[in-house]
């Protein structure tokens, strides 16, 4: 496993991009991240993460879809690369393995009456 | 609705800031996203919170990650790498070498302009630093006086003998030093066998301290002893070589024995006292001339100079105001009608600002400084114009080069650098050439301008000015090709659709017009200066200058044996006549008041030139009598006879001047003859009343009329031996009056020579430029000419075609130059009371001459283009 390490926030952003059906760009990703995590996240943090992920090769992007609201500026649509998808799968697999290693009753809420 | 746009757009300044901060490759989508976010929030909540949040969100982008620019995917171009600089220079040299004629015109034209500017700059510097040698130059002043004569206020430096003591006594608090001085006179100095006639002054002992003399031997207190003398370095060397001259005895004018007490460094050439080669104590003059102490009215004769040094922090205007009436308080009533106002003329004004008219300072030599300064600037301008003109003319030719360079990958900045390095190279070469030229010309220039200017090799200001100017010229001249040519689009240029705009030639034409305007003004100026000199030279002088020589005497020997000398020289055929006079014929050193005649207004203040002469003076110099007769030994009463000039008769309003009685300081005199006006002092000034009377004592000058039948060199040998016999103690020195007369014009001749030199250069530079531009235009139109010739144009018509444009330009220049030249020259001529008029033919000749030169210059190119075989010019396509 020689993949680049993914940070927690990076993983979330990557997952959000992967989970988008329509075309994902800065604002939509930002909103989704906030919705799904429930934390307040700054737009600049999302942007920085997106660009970093692109630099690392997990994401790819193309420009398009300018609107008047944006002052005629184009959006940058992100999509996951194969490498990115595989990275997510691998992370998922590792997690699954780890989950399975946990004894079934261990995560049950423990009742104690004493 | 009006609020709507404000509602939806976030603050502009934030965007502007972000545009600067965020790297370009991030900018578009980040800003887009930010705006979208803002729009959403503005829809949901208030605009204010939206703006605030927008601001907060934006601030978070100010971090290294977004600021850092993306590295270029190509390696950068190294515009200033050593390899590129070497390349620029190499290409520049090749370009210069390829167009030899162009390079020659450019470099030599610019070098000439720069050389002229440097020469004039050095000259101006020398003029402005006049008298700065003296340490106290800001506090030294000379006492002058305004006096009213014949209804006009005249200004002079001559003052009465007692004025120095009077100032010291009554106004001593204002002055640190008060120094009386005699005029710089010629004296015979002798030590053993060595005898020289040198000029020096009697001066009071504070002078060395005041003038901060740099003593080589002795101290500045060396004039305290009345029988002492201070020598300048040159004189000391001439007499004593390297030996110590202190305490050696010298003989002055063969009768006064003095001791050398000090040697001072020579006064530099650009000081007022440059001719003062020795100083003698004022006291010695008083001892040698005892009558000074017993004068009947010592305040009447004005014959001495007074220099003062103000106390530290003294105010010159106040001091000047205080001594204003010093003369009026002391002179007798008779003299009061001259209204003598004494004032202080500060040393800083002596050289450049000491011309007075009606008691007001009206300038002086500063006018020459302005004149030459302007000429220098203009000649330099001409050279720079050439440089720019040739660059623009060539630009169209080099457009293709720019296209190819760009097509093979040159960056614009590299082209800019290429063109700049070319212009820097040319200007650099021109500067070096100019410095060489100046070094070569300087001896000649010094001679013409009467200066001793040295190349200021070690002065950083000189180099800073020269190099600074070169850089400015290079940038100005190089900027057109550098920025305009490098902006061409290669596709257009290479396809051949590029055309310089219709107005591309307009600045070039304007420049040609400017050039020729300046040249024409300079030519007309030169012509008028020479006309004026010639006009004054042709003025009837009233006596005969040829074969007239004058010998200045400071010893009494010849006077004692005057008749014997005269008879000896006449009998051996050396001379036809000789006589003594108070001043040389070309000048008059004395003027007098005190004349009374019948019908004179007693209140009128007069000032007549007068001279005391011996019998036969009129015959010697060749007076031209209008009425009456010359002085004659046969009439005993001629000791009180007067010979006057025509102007004097007119001034006094006498009908029958001959035998008219007059009084001179109450003594009766009688006019015996009237002569034609003699030109004395300035040849440009109108004649003034002049009187001659018979002298009772010795004159300053002996005048001799050489025998026209004998050769003058032989006659002078004879005179020398006879003079040597009677006056063995004096060196024999003589002067031809015509040479002395010619010196009156030296200032004007000097201006004439310099302006000639500058106008020739200006015309030459303009023609060089014209030649260059004409050759490029001919080259540009080669094909057109080819086609015209094929269709039947004659050589003449092609010649006309090419020359017409330039002739029109020169005509425009002529039209602009004429009124300007007339205005300036008329102003210049008005300064001379006896002046020529500017006739139309000077303008006509100059215009024709310029046209001719233009045609010659252009025709060379035009005819070459016109006679070219059209096959050759058309074959290339």
How would you characterize the overall build of this protein?
The complex is a heterodimer of chains A (114) and B (877). Chain A is mainly alpha-helical and 114 residues long. Chain A contains 4 helices and 2 strands; from the N terminus they run αααββα. Chain A has one domain: Arc Repressor Mutant, subunit A (Orthogonal Bundle). Chain A has helices spanning 8-19, 26-37, 43-56, 82-101, and strands at residues 59-64, 75-80. In chain A, strands 1-2 form a two-stranded antiparallel sheet. In chain A, helix 1 crosses helix 3 (43-56) and helix 2 (26-37) packs across helix 3 (43-56). Chain B folds into 4 domains: 4-67; 140-350, no CATH class; 367-535 and 746-875, no CATH class; 548-742, no CATH class. In chain B, the strands form 5 sheets. In chain B, strands 17, 18, 19, 20, 21, 22, 23 and 24 form an 8-stranded mixed sheet that branches. A 6-stranded mixed barrel of chain B has the order 4-5-10-7-9-8. In chain B, a hairpin with a 2-residue loop joins strand 13 (355-357) and strand 14. In chain B, helix 14 (366-407) runs parallel beside helix 25. The radius of gyration of chain B is 39 Å and the shape is elongated. The A-B interface holds A 25-27, 30, 42-45, 47-48, 51, 63, 66-67, 69-71, 73-76 and B 8-9, 26, 28-37, 39-40, 57, 60-61, 63, 65-66.
Quaternary state reads heterodimer
Q: Kindly report the spatial arrangement of strands forming the biggest sheet of chain A.
A: 1-2
Percent of residues in β-strands of chain A: 5-15%
Distance between the termini of chain A: 47 Å
By secondary-structure content and strand pairing, the structural class of chain A works out as: mainly alpha
Shape of chain B: elongated
State the total count of DSSP E strands of chain B: 26
């Amino acid at each position: 496993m020689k993949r680049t390490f993914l940070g927690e926030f990076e993983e979330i952003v990557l997952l959000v991009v992967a989970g988008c059906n329509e075309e994902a760009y800065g604002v939509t990703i930002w909103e989704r991240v906030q919705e799904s995590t429930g934390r307040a996240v700054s737009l600049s943090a999302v942007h920085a993460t997106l660009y970093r992920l692109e630099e690392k090769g997990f994401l790819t992007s193309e420009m398009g879809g300018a609107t008047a609201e944006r002052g005629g500026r184009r959006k940058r649509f992100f999509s996951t690369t194969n490498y990115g998808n595989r990275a997510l799968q691998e992370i998922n697999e590792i997690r699954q393995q780890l989950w399975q290693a946990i004894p079934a009753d261990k995560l049950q809420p423990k009742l104690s009456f004493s | 609705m009006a609020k709507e746009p404000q509602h939806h757009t976030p603050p502009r300044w934030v965007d502007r800031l972000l545009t600067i901060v965020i790297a370009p490759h991030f900018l578009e989508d980040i800003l887009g996203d930010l705006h979208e976010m803002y729009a959403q929030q503005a829809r949901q909540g208030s605009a204010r919170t939206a703006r605030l949040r927008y601001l907060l969100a934006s601030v978070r982008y100010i971090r290294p990650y977004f600021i850092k620019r993306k590295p270029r995917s190509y390696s950068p171009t190294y515009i200033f790498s050593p390899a590129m600089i070497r390349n620029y220079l190499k290409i520049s040299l090749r370009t210069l070498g390829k167009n030899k004629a162009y390079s020659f015109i450019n470099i030599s034209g610019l070098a000439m302009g720069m050389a002229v500017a440097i020469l004039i700059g050095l000259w101006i510097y020398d003029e402005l630093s006049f008298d700065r040698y003296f340490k106290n130059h800001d506090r030294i002043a000379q006492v002058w006086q305004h006096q009213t004569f014949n209804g006009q206020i005249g200004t002079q430096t001559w003052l009465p003998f007692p004025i120095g003591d009077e100032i010291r006594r009554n106004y001593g608090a204002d002055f640190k030093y008060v120094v009386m001085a005699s005029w710089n006179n010629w004296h015979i100095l002798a030590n053993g066998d060595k005898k020289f006639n040198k000029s020096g002054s009697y001066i009071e002992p504070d002078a060395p301290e005041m003038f901060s003399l740099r003593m080589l031997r002795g101290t500045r207190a060396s004039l305290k002893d009345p029988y002492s003398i201070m020598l300048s370095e040159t004189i000391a060397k001439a007499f004593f070589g390297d030996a110590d001259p202190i305490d050696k005895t010298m003989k002055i004018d063969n009768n006064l024995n003095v001791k050398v007490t000090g040697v001072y460094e020579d006064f530099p050439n650009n000081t007022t006292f440059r001719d003062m080669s020795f100083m003698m104590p004022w006291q010695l003059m008083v001892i040698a001339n005892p009558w000074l102490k017993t004068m009947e009215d010592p305040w009447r004769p004005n014959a001495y100079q007074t220099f003062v040094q103000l106390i530290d922090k003294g105010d010159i205007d106040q001091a000047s105001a205080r001594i204003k009436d010093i003369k009026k308080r002391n002179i007798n009533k008779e003299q009061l009608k001259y209204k003598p106002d004494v004032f202080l003329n500060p040393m800083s004004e002596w050289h450049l600002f000491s011309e007075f008219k009606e008691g007001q300072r009206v300038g002086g030599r500063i006018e020459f400084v302005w004149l030459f300064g302007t000429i220098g600037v203009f000649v330099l301008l001409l050279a720079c114009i050439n440089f720019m003109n040739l660059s623009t003319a060539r630009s169209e030719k080099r457009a293709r080069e720019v296209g190819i360079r760009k097509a093979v990958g040159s960056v614009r900045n590299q082209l800019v650098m290429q063109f700049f390095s070319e212009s820097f190279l040319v200007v650099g070469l021109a500067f070096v050439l100019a410095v060489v030229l100046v070094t070569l010309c300087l001896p000649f220039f010094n001679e013409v301008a009467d200066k001793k200017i040295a190349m200021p090799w070690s002065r950083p200001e000189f180099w800073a000015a020269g190099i600074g100017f070169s850089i400015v010229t290079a940038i100005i001249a190089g900027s057109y090709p550098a920025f305009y040519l490098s902006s061409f689009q290669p596709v257009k240029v290479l396809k051949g659709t590029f055309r310089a705009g219709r107005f591309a030639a307009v600045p070039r034409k304007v420049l040609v017009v400017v050039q020729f305007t300046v040249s024409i003004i300079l030519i007309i100026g030169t012509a008028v200066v020479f006309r004026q000199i010639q006009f004054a030279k042709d003025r009837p002088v009233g006596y005969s200058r040829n074969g007239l020589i004058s010998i200045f005497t400071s010893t009494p020997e010849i006077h004692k044996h005057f008749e014997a000398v005269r008879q000896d020289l006449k009998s051996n055929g050396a001379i036809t006549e000789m006589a003594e006079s108070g001043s040389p014929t070309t000048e008059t050193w004395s003027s007098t008041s005190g004349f009374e005649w019948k019908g004179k207004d007693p209140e009128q203040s007069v000032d007549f030139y007068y001279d005391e002469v011996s019998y036969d003076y009129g015959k010697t110099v060749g007076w031209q009598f209008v009425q009456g007769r010359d002085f004659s030994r046969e009439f005993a009463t001629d000791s009180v006879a007067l010979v006057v000039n025509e102007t004097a008769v007119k001034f006094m309003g006498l009908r029958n001047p001959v035998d008219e009685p007059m009084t001179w300081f109450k003594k009766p005199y009688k006019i015996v003859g009237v002569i034609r006006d003699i030109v004395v002092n300035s040849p440009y000034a109108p004649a003034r009343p002049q009187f001659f009377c018979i002298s009772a004592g010795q004159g300053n000058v002996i005048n001799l009329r050489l025998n026209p039948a004998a050769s003058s060199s032989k006659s002078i040998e004879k005179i020398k031996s006879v003079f040597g016999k009677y006056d063995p103690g004096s060196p024999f020195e003589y002067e031809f009056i015509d040479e002395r007369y010619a010196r009156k014009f030296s200032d004007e001749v000097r201006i004439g020579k310099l302006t000639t030199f500058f106008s020739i250069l200006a015309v030459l530079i303009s023609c060089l430029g014209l030649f260059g531009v004409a050759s490029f235009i001919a080259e540009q139109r080669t094909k057109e000419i080819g086609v015209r010739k094929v269709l039947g144009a004659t050589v003449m018509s092609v010649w006309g075609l090419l020359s017409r444009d330039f002739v029109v330009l020169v005509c425009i220049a002529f039209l602009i130059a004429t009124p300007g030249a007339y205005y300036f020259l008329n102003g210049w001529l008005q300064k001379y009371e006896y002046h020529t008029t500017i006739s139309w033919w000077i303008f006509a000749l100059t215009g024709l001459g310029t046209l001719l030169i233009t045609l010659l210059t252009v025709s060379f190119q035009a005819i070459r283009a016109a006679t070219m075989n059209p096959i050759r010019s058309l074959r290339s396509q």
